[in-house]
Amino acid sequence: MMKEQGEIAILAIESSCDETAAAVVVNGREVRSNIISSQIALHTLYGGVVPEIASRKHIEKINQVITEAMETAEADWSEIDAIAVTYGPGLVGALLVGVAEAKAISYARKLPLIGVHHIEGHICANYIENKELEPPFLCLVVSGGHTHLVKVEDYRSYKILGRTRDDAAGEAFDKVARAIGLGYPGGPKIEKVSHEGNPHAVEFPRPKVADGEYDFSFSGLKSAVLNYLNSCQMKNIPIVQTDIAASFQKAVTDVLIGNAMHAVDTYGVKKFAIAGGVASNGTLREGMRIACEEKGVEFYHPSPVYCTDNAAMIGAAAYYEYMAGTRSGLDLNAVPNLKLGER
Ligand code: KG4
Ligand code: ZN
To answer: Which of 110, 219, 227, 301 lies in the 20 to 30 Å Cα band around 175?
Structure first.
């Protein structure tokens, strides 16, 4: 592997949900390999992620994924400086597979171990392709399990400005997709059919949270879609899947962008990034781009492969931990409900 003196190469592992992933990342921003084994096809059979199946599949795949990450990077073990692994938040059984694997490698190869927060990983995904991006900036993290508006004050220093009170944005996409017969995973399927639909066909509510300036609430929007479907059925009005998908997608993105720009106004930060699975949504990206441009704010987003779960983002976050001296012990455990900013 090409590595200059002083450069830090990290082997990163991610297994918090339904992707088994490993990557080799140099100095936090240079991805030498990024291997992802997705279980999506398997879970589609059940309409969502089945935790027990996810854990078993991680065990089956993890060694192969790590070997492939090392081979693709043409890395020798002697060139690896640390092992990083997601230790939370996520499904406990799934997280444990990655954590146990990372601990075993750390012990056997005598390499430092670094536990990484999954959401911090999503945020750091922005550093990979935007070499000039540095804190401070604001970041909207929108994934299947999380919706956070975060002020990234410095590397490793995060302040949560707003969060969802109920469903995560991605969860709302998944639930609405199921209700209109699109199946799992909902986000990409809603986005695809929305291209054929009218986003103004149904004016769904843009929910606001009264006592939380930057908080989100998506369960009401999901209920509005369900109520609309019921009323169509009762009145014998045909359901136009494409229009409902497009209108729902518009409502979600309007709320996300609205809150994001409110924070931009208040905090006066000149850089805004998005992260997480939903950040690969084209309507959200385009809406954010225009809104940021209007405010003279630089807009950053990872490529779709770095938006959904991957290990390169864990390697990016781990680099800044490594440089700050963070080292986990062999007692590192999975923390399914790990909070952002907690260590
Ligand atoms: O970040 P991620 O891969 O996993 C979590 O950490 O949760 O995010 C997965 C979520 C799912 O809810 C999925 O439906 C959503 O991201 N998603 C999308 C798109 N691609 C994935 N949502 C909207 N549009 C997309 N193109
Ligand atoms: Zn994720």
So the answer is: 301
The preferred substitution site among 173, 180, 303 for testing ligand 1, maximizing ligand atoms within 8 Å of CB, is 173
For helices 92-109 and 51-72, give the axis angle rounded to 10 degrees.
Answer: 30
| Residues paired with residue 228 on neighbouring β-strands, in sequence order | none
Ion ligand 2: residues, CB < 5 A: 143, 309
The tokens for 285 are 């990206």
Backbone angle region of 27, left / alpha / beta, with phi > 0 → left and psi within -120 to 50 → alpha: left
Q: Give the side-chain half-sphere CA count within 13 A for 63.
A: 4
Q: And the tokens for 205?
A: 């509510």
- Does the pTM surpass 0.90? The reply is yes
For residue 325, give Cα distances in angstroms to 82, 87, 314, 332.
11, 18, 16, 16
What mean pLDDT do residues 251-266 have? Answer: 97
Listed in sequence order, the residues at least 6 apart from 268 whose beta carbon sits closer than 8 Å to its beta carbon are none
Phi, psi of 160 (to 5 degrees): -80, 120
Residue 146 CA to residue 123 CA, distance in Å, equals 12
- Residue of 140, 222, 308 best suited for mutating to test ligand 1, as the one with most atoms within 8 Å of CB: 308
For 174-218, what is each residue's pLDDT tens digit?
999 999 999 888 999 999 999 999 999 999 999 888 888 999 999
Query: Ligand 1 centre and the CA of 278: distance in Å?
Result: 4
101 within 8 A of 85, measured Cβ to Cβ: yes
Residue closest to 281 by CA, chosen among 297, 258, 259, 302:
302
